[in-house]
């Protein structure tokens, strides 16, 4: 069967069983994540002052953020689609991608705090990217709260979609734009060199880039599971 992203085939559809990834994509996600977790702890890494072995957190911390941004992007796309189509399917997909994206965002925040403790001396420092990440997650938490404040599905979908679009733009500003305009401890921001320019060697790249793909595919897989669980619950109530 030719490869197709099932989640994108739901455009114009209203079938709660539509979100389904091919088996080989799930297998690739499983193998990639397991391999990268294993290699992340044993592969040789650059011996750098302060960072030392903590640089291995790059394989988990940064990849979590990549998965979060990708899932939030999908949520953003489906919110726009919902405003255009009015289909409950699109709103439901936007909600699920947001919720799963928040899980990866929390994982990125926790791993970042642990990394900060061993490199900067505290779990939380007044860094614009740290603060921006926290504000962004709070904005998406408000999206979940906002959805639960409406009982009418049409109003819920429209208001939530508009808010979700603004939340995505806000996330881009706080995570990608403001840290580059101010002083930041994060590599690649505030005048600091990025990892790729001084300590992300070829050995780390062989783990890091596949890990990004693995984490993203894992996020899609979790989204599918959550989508189908909700579909079963809806079908039971009918």
Question: Quick recap of the structure?
Answer:
Helices cover 71% and strands 0% of the residues. The chain has 7 helices and no strands.
Question: How would you characterize this protein structure?
Answer:
With 238 residues, the protein is an all-alpha fold. Helix content is 71%, strand content 0%. The radius of gyration is 19 Å and the shape is globular. Mean pLDDT is 84; it is low at 1-14. It is built from 7 helices and no strands. The longest helix is centred in the last third of the chain and has 36 residues, at 202-237. The chain has one domain.
Question: What descriptive keywords fit this protein?
Answer:
single chain, 238 residues, mainly alpha, globular
Topology:
Blueprint: H1 23-42, H2 58-85, H3 88-119, H4 128-148, H5 153-181, H6 195-198, H7 202-237
Helix pairs in contact: 1-7, 2-3, 2-5, 2-7, 3-4, 3-5, 3-7, 4-5
Low-confidence residue ranges: 1-14
Described by strand count, sense and barrel closure, the largest sheet is:
none
Strand content: under 5%
- The total domain count is 1
Rounded to the nearest angstrom, the distance between the terminal CA atoms is 33 Å
Number of strand segments: 0
Content-based structural category: mainly alpha
Can you tell me the overall shape? globular
Number of helix segments?
Answer: 7
Overall mean pLDDT stands at 84
Tell me roughly what share of residues is in helical segments.
over 70%
Radius of gyration: 19 Å
Order of helices and strands: HHHHHHH
Oligomer: single chain
